[in-house]
Amino acid sequence: MQPCLNCIAPACRASFGINEIIYNCPKCGGLLEAKYDFSDIDVHLLKRIWRERRMENNPLDQSGVWRYRELFPFLDDYNSVVTLREGNTPLLQSVRAAAYGGLANITFKHQGFNPTGSFKDNGMTAGVAQARRLGMKRVACVSTGNTSASMAAYASAGGLDPLIFIPNGNIAYGKLAQALEYGAKTFQVDANFDQILALVRVLTERLGIYLLNSINPFRIEGQKSIVIEMMDQRDWKVPDWVVLPGGNLGNVSAFGKGLRELHQLGFIDRLPRLAVIQAAGASPFYEYMREKGSKPFEAQGHPETLATAIKIGDPVSWPKAQFEIETSNGVVESVTEQEIADAKAVIGHSGIGCEPASAATLAGIRKLKLDRNADVVAVLTGNVLKDPDYIYRYHTGALQAPDSSPIKPNFGNAPIVVPNDAEKITALLAG
Question: What pTM value is reported for the model?
Answer without folding.
Answer: 0.95
